[in-house]
Amino acid sequence: MRCRRASEKHIISALPALVVSALIKTGRSYTLRNVVPAVLAEVLRSQPPDHPLQGIKVLQLNGLDVRREAGAAVLLYDLLRLVVRWAATAGVPVKAAAWREALEVLADDTGSPGMCMRAGSALVAVLHGFEAPVLVLLDELQALLQPTVPRGGEQPLGVEGAGYIRDNVLRAILVDSPPSMLLAVTGSSMALVWTALGAMPVNGVAPLYQVHQVDLPSKSPPGAMERLLEHSLQRWRLQQHRKQVLRLLERAGDSPALFMTMVDRWDAAARPKNTDAFADAYIRSKLFREAQKEWMLGLAHWTDADRGRLLDMADPLIGADFEQDGIVDPSLWRFLRPNLKKTYSGRYYLADFTQRQLLRAVIDRGGKLRKSWTGLVGPGLTLAQLDFGWLLLHLGEVADYLLGLRRRPDINPDRIRGVKRLGKLLQDLATKAEEKLPPGDSVADRWEALNAFKQVLDSPYNAGSRRWYQDEGRGRKLKSHRDLLVFFLRMCRNVLAHLRPSDRRKRVAVNTVMALPALLDMPVLELAEQVRSGMSRLAPVTIKDAAAAADAEDEEWEEFEEGEDEDEYEEELEEDEWEELEAWGGGEKGSGRGGRAGGAATVCAIFGGRSANRSGCQISSSPWPPLSAPTLGRRSGPVAIRRTATAGVLLRANAHIHRVRVTAAYQAPPLIM
């Protein structure tokens, strides 16, 4: 369309700009820099030699390349300088008046009166004044909306300057550019970009409808990742490391961008032997940081309640009710809609499991923006397995709540929607399990011969279930394979909901999450889809009630000794940190602070950034984010706080339920990014 209408002289407003829109690790910047120019070049090959866009020049801009820490005036001045320098170097003619205005602005000091408006006006004039066809590729657009102003040692957002850039500069470029200037944009915080488009003044033309949206898929097409594996082995000459690269492929899910960057960093880090430890560290140190950049700016002004409802998008069984809750404006909905699927109840969830876990990395239970990533990643778990872990939590709670032999007497499963389908799911799983279980004299004997069953039964988080099993369950109430399966699922839920940091080294999270797929000999994604389908007819309120009941009636709390030393807990966290440093080949255990600094420097050369020290204070020499325990159902330490279902409220147990008091000394210190 742009090629067809490029010769038009009199149009009401600018032709639509191209917005490369997608979620995290989908190749937005690559598409903007490489695919967009290639597609345009291919189209122009079929046009006549005198087409107005023939010989088009490409101007690449990046919002991160300009100074933003000294206010909007300096930001616009710096951006104008880049555009003027490019035009002079590329030999692109500019209208004389616009060129003269730009040079006059650049000749003045950035602190001159009215510099913000002068620089903004000159920038728009130059872009509109190109006398030759130009393709402007603007990456990291959200950075232009974030001018900060120094104030008392802090760098708060310059609200007035940001508003001017959005409403006067960017809007003018979107709505008034000539047909010979083609604009394509993207950013690493698309939520903020779309929110800004929706917030622009709509007088005359609404900028939100002045863009052409190109949505990149979150998942690669079938077979693409396998082809990418072969390509990466040849590109980096890693044929002898096929096993490790294949493991990185598994950890990357369906994201080609994530896989390629992970392999590149693994190769740059001297190919550490412990690939899983490297991947764990990479996900925490890079991927979760990118998720925060993607979402946090767009959600900072939201209430906790609204963010909590948005977090429901990460749950394929509950989903977010955008229509009833009214939590998303039209601009953000336009961004999200191509990446969502619909539940049976008409609610929406993120279609890609990787994106679901990344949203959990941004929004904590209760709707708070996360300040640490404690409780998100278990060592060795792929993002697909982690996503299945959340399903397993739900399945253990719902199966026990509705069909377990210990369910409350006031629960009537026959009157609850979706129970019949759930029962069929459990029976199908139990039938498959019966075929795979070790031989034994009884149903209980066969389940007890399963290592995974023995491990969760012996877990300190299942002390109450173990007593009930020995006193009432075994050989009495638990008679069928389905009965034992439901009991096993509830015990798995208890383990995942109450893990502590020291369980990292015991691979408890991996063993628990993978117990059912290993027993049934099913791929995780296939089993996850079967579980999701079997639970899909349950109403969200039923799933939330089951979660609340599991919290309120839980007897399987950790039993810590009164007054346990806080240093022991901190040592557990430090042990995890050393494992991550060693995964990158940095630092030597026992080398003191010198060794720690060396390891931090190694990783800092790769990522940069900050992390928390022992006391939770920031240290600039380390790039590590706050350490993550392999916990799915709670924040940190031994205290379990419910997920989205109960908006972060710790429910009280009934009076007759005994809970072991957890000493305050053992609770994790706050970790701030």
The rounded Rg comes to: 28 Å
Overall geometry comes to: elongated
Helix content: 40-55%
Mean of all residue-level pLDDT scores: 79
User: Could you give the distance between the termini?
Assistant: 46 Å
- Beta content comes to 5-15%
CATH topology of the largest domain: Rossmann fold
Strand order of the largest sheet: 2-3-4-1-5
- Number of structural units classed as domains: 4
Please count the beta strands (DSSP E, at least 2 residues each): 9
Largest β sheet strand count, sense and barrel closure:
5 strands, parallel
CATH top level of the largest domain is Alpha Beta
Derived from helix and strand composition plus strand pairing, the structural class reads mainly alpha
- Corresponding CATH architecture of the largest domain: 3-Layer(aba) Sandwich
Number of helical segments?
A: 27
**Uncertain stretches of 5 or more adjacent residues:** 558-578, 586-673
